[in-house]
Amino acid sequence: ALIQAGDKVFEREQYDKALLLFRMVFTKTDLLREMDGLVARTKKQRDSIATTASAADVIAEKRRLTRVLVQAEEQFQRIKEYPDYDQELAIRIGRSYIGLKRYWEGELVFRSIYEDYPKHKLADLGLYSAFAAALEGGLDERAIFEGTEYMNVFVGGENWDRLTAGLAQLYATREEFAK
User: Fold this and answer.
1) DSSP annotation string for the chain
2) Maximum C-alpha span of the chain
3) What's the pLDDT tens digit per position in 8-63?
4) CA–CA distance, 18 with 41 (Å, rounded to integer)
5) Is-contact 147 169, C-beta < 8 A?
6) 119 and 49 in contact (C-beta within 8 Å)?
7) Closest by alpha carbon to 134, among 152, 147, 150?
8) What's the rounded Cα separation, in Å, for the pair 147 and 166?
9) Structural contact between residues 143 and 167, judged by C-beta atoms closer than 8 angstroms
10) What separation, in Å, do the N-terminal and C-terminal C-alpha atoms of the chain show?
C-alpha cells in the first residue's frame, strides 16, 4: 500500500511525499532479519521458562509460545518465498531524490542496487542511473567514475548507447577529447 501511494504522489510530482512513503517500506531483507530475530527470541523465551511457576502455568506458557513460534516460522517462510522487491523500491527512492534535485543521494541509492545486487536484472539500470544522476547534478567526476565502471562491467549493456553518448558529451564539454 505504501509503494502504491508513493507511486501516485510521484506521478503528481510530489517527490518529497513519495520519498517519505517509499522510505517507510520495510525491505524484504529487513523483514527477513526482523522475523529471524523474532523466531530466535521466541525459541529462547520458550526454552527458558522458569520452573518456579506451577506446572500448569509452565505448560500453558510453553504451549502459547509454541503457537507464537509456529506462526512466526510460517510468516518467515512466506516472506522468504515472496518475490524480491528491494531493487524496485531502491529505484523509486532514487528517482524521488532526483525529482527533488538531490542528485548525490540519488546517485548513491542507484549505485547501491549495483553494489548490493550485482547479478540482479536491475544492476545495469542501477549503475546507469547512478551515472545519469551524477551527470544531471553536475557531479562530473562522479559521472566519469560511474560511467567508466559501467563500461567496464556492462559491456554492450541495456544502457550502453545512452551512457557512452552522455560520457562522450561530458568529455567534449570538458574539452578532454583524448578520452
Assistant:
1) -HHHHHHHHHHTT-HHHHHHHHHTSPPHHHHHHHHHHHHHHHHHHHHT--TTS-HHHHHHHHHHHHHHHHHHHHHHHHHHHSPP-HHHHHHHHHHHHHHTT-HHHHHHHHHHHHHH-TTSTTHHHHHHHHHHHHHHTT-HHHHHHHHHHHHHHSTT-TTHHHHHHHHHHHHHHTT-TT-
2) 84
3) 999 999 999 999 999 999 999 899 999 999 999 988 888 887 666 677 878 888 88
4) 35
5) no
6) no
7) 147
8) 9
9) yes
10) 47
The grid coordinates of residue 174 equal 570538458
Which pLDDT band holds residue 179 (cuts at 50, 70, 90)? low
Of 89, 81, 100, nearest to 3 (Cα)? Answer: 89
Measured distance CA(103)–CA(173) in Å, rounded: 20
Separation of alpha carbons 179 and 172, rounded Å: 9
Read off the C-alpha cell for 125: 539500470
